[in-house]
């Protein structure tokens, strides 16, 4: 029997036991953003440490940070072979609105071969697959084909505020040849994908102040600046009619797509009409000269996320609002630095500041973009493992969103990052009725197991 055949037999035999164990993990309401769940976070960390002990992993530790703990373990006995650092998170999002759940969010339920629970897909289910892969490899071969290290955190859903410091303080302990993360998704049902890049993120809030208080529009209208009009003028200056960003220097450092990447995206046969139907619009919008996938995966953005000010109650109130504000975020692509982009945004606002108002700008959290070249051997090896199990070509994609800690790993540890996820965009992570398609749980176990053998064959 081949390694994959042995593993397949093991996973079939132990499937029910594995799912019961996963349900136990999912019952822990490890919501990182709510202080009343601090003990649950500790419980989840201890659960993982105990799971590592059962696998006979070594150097197991639970490190308390200024926030929630980091759990670590390793096994380093594959002499001369590469080392994979696995990352994931055991914290989950809040569950409200609770009334929209069809079953209790922390009482895992299987319906139509889908496992429903908060954290089922993001990210406990995928973290759990790492553990069962290791269990299966030890059970079928008595060893592992590569060295492994694990680092699981409890703060990803609140932006990983304390993990970069942990990584910086433990650089030597975390040395590896690559980082593997299962916190992304497939390209579509039955369509595996290796995500080799993510956009970064930065943002600002613009607060506009005019008069010392709201003014009667009959007495002062036409003679004193209206804060909302001033804000609208600033916002309109950010983009042209095609969505191209008009901030001086914004595109200067953008890493252009290679022809190979553009051809790979074109080969996916993406249906832009389906996006229109999905979101309920008659036409798409964005930078000219780029496809929808290119605009959402590999081009930077500037979006107004919220505008506030003035009177919005029933009826009308004839005032000149004294205050108005807006929240703006930018998705960034490789070579763009969040701090530099914020400086450009501030300069742009100052340049376009209307008369009669004062402006204050505050900054939001920042995350750098990340990119591992899609022709990197570790990326291509992941594609081969997917193809063996799913029996279709692997798509090589970028993610339009951001996982800030990925960029931190890239910067601090200087390692290639391989994103091998098994979720689907339809699985309601962060929303009621989150679920995980068990077809991808089953296949993912086999893909991840095979990937360790693929990596073992690469030159260290």
TrEMBL record:
A single GO molecular function term of this UniProt record: metal ion binding
Keyword Protease (UniProt): yes
Domain of life of the source: Bacteria
InterPro entries for the chain: Cyt/Met_Dipeptidase, Peptidase_M20, Peptidase_M20_dimer
Key words of the record: Dipeptidase, Hydrolase, Metal-binding, Protease
Domain spans labelled Peptidase M20 dimerisation: 196-356
EC annotation from Swiss-Prot or TrEMBL: 3.4.13.-
Pfam families reported for this sequence: M20_dimer, Peptidase_M20
GO biological process: proteolysis
Protein name: Dipeptidase
